[in-house]
Give the backbone structure.
Amino acid sequence: MSDLDPIAMFSAWKQEAILGGEPDSDAMSVATVDADGMPHVRIVYLRTLLEEGFVFYTNYESNKGQQLLSHPKVALNFHWGSIDRQVRICGHAEKAPEELSDAYYADRARQSQLGAWASPQSREIPNREWLLKEVERVEQTFEGKEVQRPPFWGGFLVRPESMEFWMGRTARLHERTYYKRESGTWKQTLLAP
């Protein structure tokens, strides 16, 4: 692993988190901003790590989907308490290639596929019973058929512009290694804790 390849470093740290017993090594915070500049943050799961960046999946019509399509600057954060490490990522989000979204969707459990069609994510609904009836309706629609990926559902690829690797140390003298993409290459610096 090169010192100037933060994606490879991320992959190595994530593997250490798994070996260290981290229960949700794929869990990441995703921060976006709305049209008024108000920040929003939520936990989602990293589903694919590419050389180009980080991929997660959602309903494009959800709040996060609409925020990313309108304002593609995004921040991600992974925290692995089991190994006392954290990775912060800032970059730009774009829709993932359709074939990547199709392949991931095809591997999902059928109930999750149906749920993607049934749930108007982030929209107000009258009650839970309404949602369960919507799932039943969608089940009937696809009875005996393959559930195709909805056109409003797919992946976002976050292309990192900066990545910070934080490692907890005694006396709060933590290690912070910062990578910034400049002219297509990564520049590495150390930050004070």
